[in-house]
Structures are given as structure tokens and as C-alpha cells.
Amino acid sequence: MYLLTWNPKEQQIEASFGGRITRREAIHFAEEFLAIMDQHIEFQVLIDFSTITGMTDCARDILDDCRESAIYSGAEKVTFITRDEREARSMTEQRLQQVMDGRERYISYALTG
Fold it and tell me: Which residue range forms the structural domain that includes residue 86?
């Protein structure tokens, strides 16, 4: 399950996921995400994964493609809210160059409150 919205005040695409993310759900999300992204030139992306219980490998690949599409379509920054600090640290290490370039940010849900 997910919620996907455009926040005009922040110029930001906001996505919040819950439960287990399946391939089918990821495909549907990607279609909606790309449609919103195509309507905007200057934007940021906020993706909240803090309440998911898991996702299939295929769903993860599709969501990774969405992140790459956002970056190459001009997103100023893509921010991910992770379930915990360990996950935020792991994702930061995997995408260190993009984080150092200021294009991506990974933060723990516990640190957002």
C-alpha cells in the first residue's frame, strides 16, 4: 500500500509506503510516479519506507529505477526515510557518491521526530 502526492508548497513528490511492497504494486507506483514527475521541472522527492514490512526483490529493482529516473529527470534531491538507523547507514554506504554529491539522503524514521 502506498500514498503518492505532489506537494506544491515544497515542490516535492511525496511517497509513503506501508505493508509489504509487491511487484504489482511497485509497477503501479512507478507508472503514477513517472506521470507526476513528467509534469514538473524543478522538484524534490521524499520516499518514506519507515513502515514497510518488506518488499520483493523485483519491487526493489523497480523502485531503484524510479529513483534513478528522478535523478536523471532533474530532481534536486531524493530523500529516503528508512525504518531504522542501520538501514539508513547501509543505504548511505551503497549510494555514497550520490549522497556526497548531495543528490540523495537517507535518514532513519527515529531521527525525523
Answer: 2-112
Output the domain CATH number for residue 35.
Answer: 3.30.750.24
CA 98, CA 113: separation in Å to the nearest integer?
25
Main-chain phi, psi angles of 41, to 5 degrees: -100, -50
pLDDT score for 110 = 74
Looking at this protein, which amino acid is placed at residue 40?
H
pTM for the whole structure: 0.90
Q: How many domains does the chain have?
A: 1
Beta-strand ranges (E) seen in the chain are: 2-7, 12-21, 44-55, 78-82, 104-108
Residue type, 22: T
Cβ atoms of 46 and 77 closer than 8 Å: no
* 82 contact partners, CB below 8 Å, separation of at least 6: 49, 50, 88, 91, 106, 107, 108, 109
